[in-house]
Amino acid sequence: MNGTGTPERPARVLVIDDEEQIRRALRSVLKARHWTVDLAENGEAGIEAAATHPPDVIVLDLTLPGMSGFDVCKELREWYVGPILVLSVRGGEEDKIRALELGADDYLTKPFSTGELIARMRALMRRSASGDASLSEVCTGDLLVDFARRRVVVRGEEVRLTKTEFDILAVLARNLDRVVTSRMLFDEVWEPDYLGEDQTLRTHVSNLRKKIERPGDVPRLLLTEPGVGFRLVSRDSG
User: Fold this and answer.
1) Alpha carbon distance 125, 123 (integer Å)
2) Which domains are present in the chain?
3) Per mean pLDDT, which range of 20-34, 143-157, 195-209 is the poorest?
4) CB neighbours of 148 closer than 8 A, spacing ≥ 6?
5) Pairing of strands 57-60, 12-16
6) Comparing C-alpha atoms, which of 199, 201, 222 is closest to residue 210?
7) CB 142 within 8 A of CB 155
8) Of 100, 114, 132, 184, which is least surrounded by CB within 10 A?
């Protein structure tokens, strides 16, 4: 069931991973949720599978024999518009940033919790299905972002943001549940090739949090991905 109480359409998932144990485990977990699962043990087979049976979401390893996961992601992004979730033992900041900037939507490091994996996949598929590029507003938890009017409402009260704060929030809201790297934010909010300092961005985000998060709480909406960037998450109100 989805959040509206109606049955979910069975999702189709493509897993591209050279570890047989991972492929078997994911097939078992995903089929238990009545999802269709396609498996590929290398990049070339994964690209062919995605073209033959377009999936709702792709789970992609980076360390593959032959064609690397980075190259697979780059090639897929030439035509595949659905979400790509990287699942890799490579947890370094540079690897995460490179994958995200090549078009991956999210990144989870092995070993991983199957519960978190499923939650991330569901969030990415909701975002993809919503067609959010054409949305006039985004609502998550107590937060409403109205793009056309450049208006932000928190717990029923309009909140005044600076231009930069709103622009940062707008980028994150249009990429709800997706990690947005610091470089992406600099390019979108300032201008391409702007040589901004991370501390500048962190200061703006810190000020933004004070205006949209509940007082005294740990961040629930605007999360930091250490060394990589930020994520605005979807949450129910309350």
Assistant:
1) 5
2) 12-130 (3.40.50.2300), 133-232 (1.10.10.10)
3) 195-209
4) 136, 137
5) parallel
6) 222
7) yes
8) 114
